[in-house]
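Open question from group meeting: does this chain pack into something compact, or does most of it stay loose? Before anyone orders reagents, we agreed to write out a predicted structure and look at it together. Recording both the input and the output here so the notebook holds the full record.
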Amino acid sequence: MTVYVFGHRNPDTDAICSALAYADLLQRTSRPDAIAACCGAPNRRTEYALNRARLSAPRIIMDVRPEVADVCKRNPIVAYDDEVFNEIYERMQENDIGAVPVLDHEGRFLGLLTLLDLMRVIFEGDDDAVAARQVNSSVDKIIDVLNGEVQHGVNTAECENLMIMVGAMSAEGFTKRLYQNEPSKLLVVSGNRPTIQLPALEHGVRVLVVTGGYELSPGLLQLAKLNNVSVVKSNFDTATTTMRIKSARRIASAIQADCLTLSSKLPVEDAREIVDSSRQKLFPVLDDQGKLFGVLSKSDLVNPPRPKLILVDHNELSQAVQGADESEIVEVLDHHRLGGNLKSDQPIRFVNEPVGSTCTLVARQFRAAGIDPSPGIALCMASGIISDTLHLRSPTTTDVDRDILDWLTTRVSVDMDEFVREFFEVGSALQSQPAARVVREDCKEFVDRGHRFSISQIEEIGFELFWQRNDELLEALRALTKERSLDFSALLVTDIISNGSLLLMSHEPEFWEAINYPRLERNLYQLDSVVSRKKQLLPLISRLLEAAGDPVGSR
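C-alpha cells returned:
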C-alpha cells in the first residue's frame, strides 16, 4: 500500500524539500511505494529551488481521509438498456449478484436494476390481461431465450412491441380473437395445430412460434414466406415457451432512474451515514463527469483502508494534512518541539532532533546509508537547510547543519553562492502575494496550555514593503484568527540582512503585557536578533502563557 510522505500545512521550503528527498531515499531503499505529498502549493521561493533542481513539486493532497473511490469495486458487472430480462438474469446468476448498474451504449449511467425489478418485468401487468401479453423485444432476442431455430426470418433484429397470443383454444375461438388485433403486432404461440397456424399465417401475423419441437409443413412454411411471417421453432412446451418469451422483454421499463448514487470523491465516513440510512443494497459510484466509476455495497465500508503517512518537518496533528488523525502514522522525522496529541497503535520510528532543518536529518540518512543523492535531490535538501537556517545564520543552526550542507554542496551542479543570493531575492511574499496569502503562506497552528494560536513567518530583504502594507496585513491576520477560531495570530517578518524581525499581532492578549521587546505601535513589536519561530518566538510565547496562567483574553 502506498505511503505518503507529508510536510505540514502551508508548507515552507524545508517541509516540501524534506518530503521530496525522504520519499526518494525510501524509494531507493525500503519503500518503493513512497510518494511525496504536500497539503498546499509551494511558495515562490520553493518553486525557484525546485526549478533549479529540475524536480516536480510533490503531489498536492488536501485531505487523506479514505474516499469512496478507495473502497468501491471497480469494473463492476453492468447491464445495458437494450438488453432483456433473460440476459441480465443469467449474468446475475453467473456472478452471484442481486443488482447491477445500467448504462447506455455511450457509457452514460441510467440507473440501477435489481433481481426483484427483473421479476417485475416478467410478471408486471398480470392483473391486466392486455399488459400481461405485451413484449417489447426483437425476434432475435426471442430466438435466444428459446434456444430456438428459425424456419423463416423477417427483420429479426428490429425491436418492436409485440402482443402474445397463445393458440390453446378452439380454432373457431382463436380465429375470432385473431381478427380483433393488428396482425403486424401479433406473436402467436402454437403447438402442432395446423388449424391454428393456418389462420395466423393467412392473417399475416408478425411471428409464429411453433412449440414442442415441431416444424411447419412445407406448404404452411411457403405461406409464411409469402406473407412475411417470421417462424420460430421451440423445443419447449407451450406454457414454458410463453414464459420464456416474456423473459425476452427489454429491461428499460424496470430501471430505477431515481436510485441513490455516491460520488467517488465522497469521504467514507460521509458515505457510511448515507448508506446506513438507506434500504438500497447496491450504490452506483459516479465520477465528476457522472460516468460510472464503480459500485459500493454496505460490506465495503466495514473496514476501510487507513492511509499510511510519514510526517516530516512536523509532529502535531493540528499542523498535519486533514485526515491524519484517521490515518496510520508509520514514521515521524522532525526538528520541532513535541506537541499535540499524536498517537499510534504500534511502535513507530520517531526521529526528532534539535537541528536547523528537517532536510539535515534526511541528508544525514543518505550519507549514513552510503547513498549519494542525485544533484537535484542534493540541491533540494540544501535549499531546505538554507531556508530554515537563513543560510546558517539562524540561532537554530547547529554544527550538524553546517557539516551536512558542506557535504551536499559537493554534490550539486550549480554555483551555490549565486543560488543562495537568487533564492532569497526571488521569494518576497510581500512583493507578489495578497495579504491573505502572505499570512497563510508559512502558517503553523499551536496549542499551548489550552490556548490555540498561529504563527506565520516570512523572510524579506529589508522592511520597506512591510511598512507599505502593514495595515492590510493586520486585517488579514484578524480575518485568519476569526476564520480558524484562534485566540490570536502572529506574523513574524524577518529581515535576512539585519537578522532581526518585526512581529505583528492580530491583537494583544492580556498576557502580552509581559513581553520585553519594544512596542513600535499597537499590535506591532520590534524583535532584534529574533529570526526563529521555533527556537525563539514560540518559547517566548510559551513562557508568557505559563507566567499568565489564565485563559487568553483580548484587550
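Observations to bring back to the group:
The mean pLDDT is 91.
The domain at 67-136+238-301 is CATH 3.10.580.10 (CBS-domain).
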